[in-house]
Design goal:
homodimer; alpha/beta; 8-stranded parallel β-sheet; about 40% helix; metal-binding (chains A, B); Hydroxymethylglutaryl-CoA lyase (chains A, B); lyase (chains A, B); HMGL (chains A, B)
Chain lengths: ~325, ~325
């Protein structure tokens, strides 16, 4: 997606082709308690590339002492061997992170800035107010766009905050407009602790698409209470055509304690393919990558398709 | 629900009140590898009664040597202490089972007959052709109605068969009409091995409601590939107002091997309540019953709400 091309958000009934960004290598790995060896990360990301993803979130430029698991980000970016048409995304937490990222500017195509829609969550997450963060965004956004990188945004706690409760839709969409003004061409809405429901998802994405013409509106759901795919289906019905998910159901925010986080990419792809929605992905290869992650991490992952596989519509012998 | 009262299937946009039948004590317990002690079953069913269920599937009149886990059905029916307005449902596999059930006719209010929509699944399940089964249904249905019991039906593999693949919608709805002709006032459609998707769910339930005026149309989904709640949401959107689910995500058909089966009642209730859909249930009490089942069975259950609890919308301290 170039920065200047408007994203074709769809309305119900139109032909359905969706974009899925795989976020497991950053948002997923980040939450693993055991350190994953750099060569393992590289091998798994290359497997994702072979599954057909055109967008993968690969690394974060957070301080290594804050998230040691991701301290090998540049090594990972250097080691992976993805097809030329795959966009590598990196997460930028602040100006220092942006400095470090731009020092290796040729290793990625997409840079993501983020904020939490709720004041308390933003403060607890990055120790700054929402207003301070958005002031930084305006400055960092300009630098990212000037480098001819794609500027993406993520708004966390878009559907509710574990500390503040309800988060007004208008507040979230106002922040989205600020990101768009800063040069973002894609804006993702994160259900950080799984508080969304399908009725709200539908209403939210209808409103977001209307308020953000030409912007790629991305749904990032968690499966905290088992409703992740229901929310994704509702967003699709609302016209959303861009999704983020994590292979193996890795990572995301485990709140309340012990909860699962991100929706599993292979479950999302399975649902979309069964509905006739084109993802451009090879489901069997996605499942294979997730199983490889399970084997590498040495623990049973919670994705359903890892166990059940794709639906088989031919008669079994 | 009396036999003669038409069920108010709804169309989109109307006020939403749903019925949820808890099927864990039969469909759930049936799949447990370890024998559950009769007093434990009774204690768990009584807990479900306190959670507000008005319909509970309690027992099956299958041969004890076929499903030993359910051989204490009559003892369970005698031991439970449910409020007077709770309908106790029993599953009737054949005429012999019906004889045995009618010998204790005062212990239940609803009797369920079933068939698989696909020939191969029906043969493997009960060793009879679909036609033979439906001939039995006509005879058994009359006997059940004559006893002033509510006759319910379940059509397994309504959304796909693991042996035959696709199952035509018309074939399923023809069988539903045969059940209605036999006196059934409620007809459930089972996604036995989790092959449905939300787009098909929506189309199917729109068609079923149109084809079966006055009949209560019930959705029975499995979470085999994580899409169970998405399918339930789509059925709700199509006008379906009657659902079956299992507390703790217990039971259902583990095909492919190792898969999860029934959707978890507490996850379904959580989704409905968040959407403003009235279930008449106390979600905290449903979760409590599921946690008690987890503790009694001594293994980690797969329900999400057991871990995450309900969404909390008030600010946390």
């Amino acid at each position: 997606m170039s920065q200047t091309q408007a994203f074709p958000n769809a309305t119900r009934g139109e032909t359905r082709t969706v974009q899925i960004r795989e976020v497991g290598p950053r948002d997923g790995f980040q939450n693993e308690p055991e350190t994953i060896a750099t060569p393992d990360k590289i091998r798994l990301i290359d497997a994702l590339g072979r599954a057909g993803f055109k967008r993968i979130e690969v690394a974060s430029f957070v301080r290594p002492d804050v998230i040691p698991q991701l301290s090998d980000g540049i090594e990972v970016l250097r080691g992976i061997d993805l097809p030329d048409d795959v966009d590598r995304m990196v997460l930028i937490p602040n100006s220092r992170g942006l400095d470090n990222a731009l020092a290796v500017r040729d290793l990625f195509e997409e840079a993501t800035l983020f904020v939490s829609a709720s004041q308390t969550h933003n403060t607890k997450n990055i120790n700054r107010s929402v207003e301070e963060t958005m002031a930084d965004v305006a400055v960092m956004g300009k630098r990212i766009v000037a480098e001819d990188l794609t500027l993406c945004a993520v708004i966390a706690t878009s559907f509710g905050c574990p500390y503040e409760g309800p988060v007004p839709m208008d507040r979230v969409l106002d922040l989205a407009e600020q990101f768009a003004a800063a040069g973002a061409t894609e804006i993702g809405f994160g259900d950080t602790t799984g508080m969304c429901n399908p009725a709200y998802s539908r209403a939210f994405f209808e409103a977001a698409i209307e308020r953000l013409p030409g912007i790629e509106v991305t749904a990032h759901f968690h499966n905290t209470r088992g409703q992740g795919l229901a929310n994704a289906y509702a967003a699709l019905e609302a016209g959303c055509r861009s999704f983020e998910s994590s292979f193996g159901e890795l990572g995301g925010c485990p709140v309340p304690k012990g909860s699962t986080g991100n929706i599993a990419t292979e479950d999302l792809v399975s649902m979309f393919h069964e509905m006739g929605v084109d993802t451009g992905l090879d489901l069997a290869a996605v499942i294979e990558a997730a199983r490889e992650a399970q084997s590498t991490l040495g623990r049973k992952l919670t994705s359903h398709s890892i166990v059940a596989g794709p639906v088989t519509w031919y008669p079994a012998s």
